[in-house]
Amino acid sequence: MSLEQEVLQRAKAWTTETYSLQTRTRVKDLIEEGGDALMDAFYKDLDFGTGGLRGIMGAGTNRINKYTLGMATQGLSNYLLKQFPNEEISVAIAHDSRNNSKEFSHKVAQVLAAHDIKVYLFEDLRPTPELSFAIRHLGCKSGIVITASHNPPEYNGYKVYWDDGGQLVPPHDKGVIEEVRKVKPEDVKFAENSPLIFSIGKEVDDAYIKEIEKQCFGNDGKDKLKIVFTSIHGTSITSMPHAMALCGFTDFHIVEAQSTPDGNFPTVKSPNPEEAAALKMAVDMAEKIGADLVIGTDPDADRVGIAVRDLNGEMALMNGNQAASVLIYYLLERWKENNRLTGNEFVAKTIVTTDLIDKIAEHYNVDCPNCLTGFKWIADVIRKNPEKTFIGGGEESYGYMIGDFVRDKDAIASGVLLAEAAAWAKSRGSSFYEMLIEVYHKFGFYQEDLISLTKKGMKGSEEIIQMMKDFRANTPQEIGGERVVKMLDYDSSKCTDLLSGTLEAIDLPKSNVVQFITDKGSKITARPSGTEPKIKFYISVNEPLTKVEDFERVKKSLEGRIADIKKSLGL
């Protein structure tokens, strides 16, 4: 049977009585239309990956809808019942501001309830990190959040957490996936108006924000720091203003035009604080009122972007590596200042995040394990080391975590602590930007860049697979005029020294990532995204900053090296 015939057969199955009239009608239209629209909707089952589901909303096996979410929840329910026999099982559920998120969260709750599983369902939209917090706060075995993070408006998704508040890791990720793959659409049961579904809200909100307050170090300069905040039509509007007020920030201004939750994200092309355009309204407001700091969050409030005043007094966007470096430096400096460092603490980062953080941690005699991309791996390190104290962690994609009361990246807590770092610097006659330069001067000037290539649909997926095959089969001898001396293949778990030919094992779970290290210490990484139809290239270069006065000169030199690397790779 050809792929086209297989797709048609799959589609016709969705025109039976198992599915709603609306779904059946839409699928019949797709069948009549044919072509890529039909192919992309049905050429495969939507992958339940190690983090859950994410995809375009609509009818089809490769789409987010109540049936694909129902099957995922049926599989999760079956796995939970096997893992916790003869125990009361409860699951917390939250959702973001996306279209259909609330409806989907209720459908998911109904599937769990149909299996006699108790459900704590947030009364309305809430940040993803609060869901992570709620799992341990309420003693749940698992948690689910309906979100597609910062993806475009047509997307939605489904993330699953375990009883430690972290996203699924081995063996539970594979165990849940196996159960999900056994489920057929007709197997899914929905229990409407079940007494097992409990609404939660303010009590959990207050407990979560109280924990954020505990992470703060004091009120140094907080009343002198002017902040502009935008939720970019997302969930952080429910928590950030309250958290900032409780933690002592009084000069706090909201971009009202972006404060209403709206899954269409009407004022931006993309609700992603990694992109300058998403923060433009906030930056414009900051310029107008003379603010020191801009804070913007993505729809489910796990990522945060900031802008600060540069040396010329202009608002400058900080990338994720810069913000993470200053944040970790601030945390460790304050821990040291308060005599809290005992040698038993650690911070953490991902393999594609700046190595500047490793240098900072080393200076303070604090361990810094490097994890695969995704905060679930940082949560896993915390879970496996209960005798050690986790201070904070970060990843280049604008995600940071403070303390271990949340086991996922947290835009609310990190937004508060980034603001506190800025206030602390200002109270010392400095600034956030000058603190970044201070970090470069002490530990080395690291400059990073990220290039994302979007490859949509089945053809795009095939292109990405081929690109990764080519990198492994044809290791470049040099990139951007710099000699490649090491290749790390995280899928084969091997690090090859290209000078000596020796191999070392990589002690991390397998992942489809290839990394090249040059003789100048540059690091180039290729990684297909696990949540978007993209392949990402991470570039990091560095050199010493022996004098603060040389900042601009060294910055230009590093930018030139990045440009050479991009040209060499055809990016």
Task: Briefly say what this structure is.
By secondary structure, the chain is an alpha/beta fold.
Give the helices and strands, then pairings:
Blueprint: H1 3-13, H2 21-33, H3 35-42, E1 52-56, H4 66-83, E2 90-95, H5 101-113, E3 118-122, H6 128-137, E4 142-146, E5 155-162, H7 172-182, E6 197-200, H8 202-214, E7 227-230, H9 240-246, E8 252-254, H10 280-289, E9 293-297, E10 304-309, E11 315-318, H11 320-337, E12 345-350, H12 356-363, E13 370-371, H13 375-384, E14 389-395, E15 399-402, H14 411-427, H15 432-443, E16 445-454, H16 457-473, E17 478-479, E18 482-489, E19 494-497, E20 503-505, E21 514-518, E22 523-528, E23 534-543, H17 551-569
Parallel strand pairs: 2-3, 2-4, 3-6, 7-8, 7-9, 12-13, 12-14
Antiparallel strand pairs: 1-5, 4-5, 9-10, 10-11, 14-15, 16-23, 17-18, 18-19, 18-21, 19-20, 21-22, 22-23
Helix pairs in contact: 4-5, 4-7, 6-8, 11-12, 11-14, 11-15
How would you characterize this protein structure?
It is built from 17 helices and 23 strands. It is α/β, with parallel strands linked by helices and 571 residues long. The chain folds into four domains: 1-43, no CATH class; 51-200, 3-Layer(aba) Sandwich (Alpha-D-Glucose-1,6-Bisphosphate, Chain A, domain 3), CATH 3.40.120.10; 217-443, Alpha-D-Glucose-1,6-Bisphosphate, Chain A, domain 3 (3-Layer(aba) Sandwich), CATH 3.40.120; 446-569, TATA-Binding Protein. The strands form four sheets. Strands 16, 17, 18, 19, 20, 21, 22 and 23 form an eight-stranded antiparallel sheet that branches. Strand 19 (494-497) and strand 20 (503-505) form a beta hairpin.
